[in-house]
């Protein structure tokens, strides 16, 4: 056997006994899943917060957002979602870390629980004495515009400042009209002793005209307040899947609450969209809360 043949057999023998290098199989990692019970009838793609742990008992809680699967879900239905690894863990009493978790599918409390936090709470006073300001604070929390609708960031920025300017302007103009009307009355009385004065009809016309202007401004202010409050309340119900009351005609609950008891309606929205048991209320801030309060989910 020639040397060339021996080399060929040697190479063949070596190739048969050599162990091929290990090919690394792709590593697989199981995704942890959890079961979520639907809090209400929710449409496909709707997102809502889920909390693991009982913060009320002092335990550490984890809050994250889940998305309703294809086809939607019904109240009480259980569905599986991946457990995110980067959930935000919250510890009670740690400001700036926890997020305010909002109930889904129902209001946090009743429409008439205005005094839930005492008779001297800033929310109570804002709701009773200046409904547009209290509504603007809720709208600012939800990033709504001055009309109570979601929009581009350029539209939703400064909602509270716009409403505050409108309210102050209205009250100043209203007081100016009152002063002019009162002044015309006193001028008319003082001129009755002047035998040459004959402009009584002009004073009466001025008074009547200013009274009509003042009444029209009041109507516009009232209508705007109702529309702003109605739109904001409708958005809160839609965002948190809160159904209308069964004893109210469909589509009428928000406007009925805004007209019949606007102070109670805005107070309920404000209590629903934050945690006043943890964070104090502020009368004149943009959101009705201190600046350090985290955003709602």
UniProtKB/TrEMBL annotation:
It comes from the Eukaryota. Residues 1-14 have a biased composition (Polar residues). The lineage of its organism: Eukaryota, Sar, Stramenopiles, Ochrophyta, Bacillariophyta. Residues 1-24 are annotated as: Disordered. This is PLAC8 family protein. The keyword tRNA-binding does not apply. Keywords: Membrane, Transmembrane, Transmembrane helix. The keyword Metal-binding does not apply. InterPro entries: PLAC_motif_containing (IPR006461). It holds the Pfam family PLAC8. The chain crosses the membrane at residues 163-186, 206-229.
